[in-house]
Design a protein that fits this description.
Length: 318
């Protein structure tokens, strides 16, 4: 079923969904199942699986020189989605990125997804690789998520890259895109970022999942701004608990967002790791309850492998 069908059938209730990362190379599906098994009691209608492209690292050779090497630490996504659907009978949403893919490779992945009856995708550009400095698309790849949304929408209309294909099967993808309540870090301002989000919706995107935020005001303002601009698709808040001291710096650095001073003070004042975790869990419970009370269509939790924390939050909210 499509993600948006779940929202339509929810009768105004706030749904719940989870996001998992593929295991590190050499790992097994057990890591995913260990995360999801305890969370399935909350009946998430869909589970997202992130995509991680290759990274460059420098490996010291016997000569003493360093060699730039590409490694993909977390391969897999499509197979994981199929395994999740098979095991739990819920829908899985693979994240697809432009980075590292030609248009044809993107098309081939989408064809596989269609064959597997995976009808939901989150269409993303992906970040710049470390050492690249800025996002560099493949030679015949997409520059922006907008272009991927257009490609998927074309396939939903039976239009493939090869013009010679007539009466191609119409795929049935429900297309999610990313949204940034505190704006995407490359965008000159929120208005510009939203103008592109609007283009993605006009091109066929069906819903938005947001970057994490720790002050709900950003989400509510974001939804208001979207509605004012005529972006009327469901907007799902993405949530992650902050439970460790180093995250006070790493989360703003990696995700380009602000942390409320009240949260920062409480985390800093907590006497040990256990107490910090309690602060983060309480904060996330409070955030979740307010978002639910104000009618968010779904709460989307980034699990990051920390099932115990996520479970404690969700138990208090649902
Ligand atoms: P785009 O929509 O392409 O936007 C990128 C930037 O360009 C923005 O500043 C935007 O304002 C601007 N822009 C957009 N369209 C145009 C245009 N046509 N012309 C000029 N400028 C334009 N990354 C991963 O690698 N794997 C994942 O699994 C993953 N999952 C994510 C899930 C969520 C919910 C979120 C919020 C992010 C996720 N990301 C993931 C990160 C994402 O790939 C990065 O944030 C990336 O930098 C931007 O992706 P995007 O799809 O928003 O890009």
């Amino acid at each position: 079923m499509k993600v948006t069908d779940y929202f339509d059938n929810a009768n105004g209730n706030t749904l719940i969904s989870f996001e998992v990362l593929p295991p590190l190379k050499g790992g097994s599906m057990k890591a995913i199942f260990d995360t999801l098994d305890p969370l399935m009691e909350f009946k998430p209608p869909f589970i997202d699986v992130t995509y991680h492209r290759e990274e460059f690292i420098y490996v010291k050779k016997t000569t003493g020189y360093y060699e730039k090497t590409a490694i993909r630490k977390r391969p897999g996504t499509v197979g994981i989605c199929a395994a999740i659907m098979h095991r739990y009978g819920v829908d899985a949403v693979p994240h697809l990125i432009c980075g590292g893919f030609t248009k044809e490779e993107t098309e081939n992945v989408l064809i596989d997804l269609n064959f597997l009856d995976i009808n939901n995708v989150l269409a993303l550009r992906g970040d710049a690789r470390k050492f690249d400095g800025k996002f560099i698309p493949e030679k015949d790849g997409h520059n922006y998520a907008l272009d991927m949304v257009k490609q998927i929408a074309n396939m939903n209309n039976g239009k493939y890259l090869d013009d010679n294909i007539e009466n191609g099967e119409k795929t049935n993808f429900c297309i999610g895109i990313a949204g940034y309540p505190e704006k995407h870090f490359e965008a000159p301002n929120l208005e510009s970022d939203l103008a592109f989000a609007k283009q993605k919706v006009e091109a066929g995107a069906n819903y938005i999942v947001t970057q994490m935020f720790f002050d709900n005001k950003y989400y509510f303002e974001f939804v208001d701004r979207c509605r004012e601009m005529g972006i009327n698709v469901p907007i799902v808040p993405g949530l992650k608990p902050l439970t460790k001291k180093y995250q006070l710096n790493s989360i703003p650095r990696l995700f380009h967002l602000d942390l409320p001073q009240e949260l920062a003070t409480a985390i800093t004042a907590a006497k040990d790791g256990k107490a910090r975790k309690e602060v983060g869990i309480e904060w996330s419970i409070h955030q979740s309850k307010e978002l639910k009370a104000k009618g968010a269509p779904c709460l989307h939790y980034y699990t990051m492998g920390d099932v115990e924390t996520i479970k404690r939050i969700v138990e208090k909210v649902y």
